[in-house]
């Protein structure tokens, strides 16, 4: 993953995943989505980091978190334009 990549790891039916994607979409943020139920390698990678619940948001190579976190989303992508 390059430094400019934002990736959202999701699972089907995940409300926090959908909230995170809606937040990003409403601000025009480019991101990739990975369904963890369809990618065993990605599932293994995020569980190795200690995550047990989706979404996992990865910004660049070293910044990542779990759950719908508007505080961290705003920190990285700014507030919605007025």
CATH fold category name:
Glutaredoxin
Structural class: alpha+beta
Strand content: 15-25%
Helix and strand sequence: EHEHEEH
Number of strands: 4
The helix count comes to 3
The CATH class name reads Alpha Beta
Task: Supply the CATH superfamily name.
Answer: Glutaredoxin
Unreliable stretches: none
Residues in helices, as a percent range = 25-40%
Overall 3D geometry?
globular
CATH architecture label:
3-Layer(aba) Sandwich
What is the domain total for the residues? 1
Largest sheet at a glance?
Answer: 4 strands, mixed
What features would you describe in this structure?
This protein has one domain (6-77): Glutaredoxin, CATH 3.40.30. 35% of the residues lie in helices and 21% in strands. The protein contains 3 helices and 4 strands. It has helices at residues 15-26, 40-48, 70-77; strands at 6-10, 32-35, 56-59, 63-66. Strands 2-1-3-4 form a 4-stranded mixed β-sheet, covered by helices on one side. The mean pLDDT is 91.
What's this entry about, in short?
This protein is an alpha+beta fold. It has helices at 15-26, 40-48, 70-77, and strands at 6-10, 32-35, 56-59, 63-66.
Defining key terms:
single chain; globular; alpha+beta; 3 helices; four-stranded mixed beta sheet; Glutaredoxin; 82 residues; 4 strands
Secondary structure topology:
Layout: E1 6-10, H1 15-26, E2 32-35, H2 40-48, E3 56-59, E4 63-66, H3 70-77
Parallel strand pairs: 1-2
Antiparallel strand pairs: 1-3, 3-4
